[in-house]
Amino acid sequence: MVSNMRSVSKKIRSHILELVFNANASHVGSALSIADILVAVYYSKKLNFDPLSKEHSFVLSKGHACAALYAILFEKGLIKDDDFYSYGKDGSNLMHHSSHKVTGIELSTGSLGHGLSFTLGQALAQRIRGVHGKNICLIGDGELAEGSNWEAMLFASHQKINNLTLIIDNNNLQSLTTVADTLNLYPIDKKFEAFGWHVIEIDGHNFEQLENALLQKVDRPTVIIAKTIKGKGVSFMENEVKWHYKNPNEEEYKTALLEIKNA
């Protein structure tokens, strides 16, 4: 099971690099950061997440990392070759931020701070309808600076929305510097505990920990604080804030692909 997810993760990282390089795009570091999280969500046989089921919902609130989600949906057969390789081109549905025009994506994101509220609404609607599904939202740690998240956190706890899971991509880098230097959010776990959430802290690149966290069932909303590395999988991109916006040149692209292949 875990070995299969590791194999898929290498494919996803290769696709991310290919998309970003060909489109001369940015946010490769952010996409590589969340690759393992997405693989755990979409490929865990125990979780059995179906992107087309009305009982399941996944929202990538940090929409600038969409290359990772597009790569997942491509591997799942929901995006065809011609569309996939049109990423970033004029007229393409595969925009530089995740788009609901793509099969398997419910919400266009990129204006940060909206994903959690949307997913919370879906979870509440499911509960009202008597549906027992899984609603997952993935946000960046820097995105927690958006006040709308905290309103959603309060409401979810008050209503005991236990079919809601928030995953925080906690790589401590955003835009131009660290999260701690931009607007210090730490300790994140204590803040969520104070808001009444079930808190799980894990290694966001460990598939066993990711799967176990996603399968936990409690009587209130769950937050998974996933400790990650921006640019994970490419040595010269890891923990380097410049890869939030920088795109690889041809030499960097080939070196990165080779690293992932031989990992």
Name a few traits of the molecule:
alpha/beta; single chain; 263 residues; 13% strand; globular
Q: Give the CATH class.
A: Alpha Beta
Span between N and C termini?
18 Å
Helix-strand pattern: HHEHHHEHEEEHHEHEH
Instruction: Determine the number of helices (DSSP H or I, runs of at least 4 residues).
Output: 10
Low-confidence stretches: none
Please, what is the CATH homologous superfamily?
Thiamin diphosphate (ThDP)-binding fold, Pyr/PP domains
Q: State the domain count.
A: 1
Question: For the report, how would you describe the main beta sheet?
Answer: 5 strands, parallel
The CATH architecture designation is: 3-Layer(aba) Sandwich
State the CATH topology: Rossmann fold
What do you see in this structure?
By secondary structure, this protein is of the alpha/beta class. It has a single domain (2-262), classed as Thiamin diphosphate (ThDP)-binding fold, Pyr/PP domains (Rossmann fold, 3-Layer(aba) Sandwich), CATH 3.40.50. Helix content is 43%, strand content 13%. The protein contains ten helices and seven strands. The protein has helices at 2-23, 28-43, 66-75, 81-84, 115-129, 147-158, 179-182, 188-194, 207-215, 250-262, and strands spanning 56-60, 134-140, 164-170, 173-174, 177-178, 198-203, 222-227. The strands form two sheets. It has a five-stranded parallel beta sheet with strand order 1-2-3-7-6, sandwiched between helices. Strands 4-5 form a two-stranded antiparallel ribbon. The two termini are 18 Å apart.
